[in-house]
Amino acid sequence: MGKRRERERQPWDSASIQALRRHLGLTQQELSDRLGTRQQTISEWETGMYRPRGASATLLSMVAEQARFKYDSTAHEKKP
Q1: Straight-line distance from the first to the last Cα atom of the chain, in angstroms, rounded to the nearest whole number
Q2: How far apart are CA 49 and CA 43, in angstroms?
């Protein structure tokens, strides 16, 4: 797997997740209810402990698109 494919799977960093939540005007609990996850999971994403993967990352992208939230999935990535 190349770096491009990995970037496509994990476009969400902690700052982008928190910015999306604030853009939506939601608490961590409200966002977790909307995504079908635990509030602790949202907290862990926002602190950078973990990153959303798979279906969670896809759901975040869908929510962002519906909310017309602009984010750059490559802005915070380290360059080789």
Answers
A1: 16
A2: 9
Please report which confidence band the pLDDT of residue 27 belongs to, taking 50, 70 and 90 as the band edges: very high
pLDDT tens digits for 28-47?
A: 999 999 999 999 999 999 99
CA distances from 38 to 2, 32, 72, 77 (A): 31, 5, 25, 26
Domains of the chain, with CATH numbers?
10-66 (1.10.260.40)
pTM here? 0.76
Distances, alpha carbon 62 to alpha carbons 4, 20, 69, 72, in Å: 20, 11, 10, 14
Nearby residues of 8 by Cβ (< 8 Å), 6 or more positions away? none
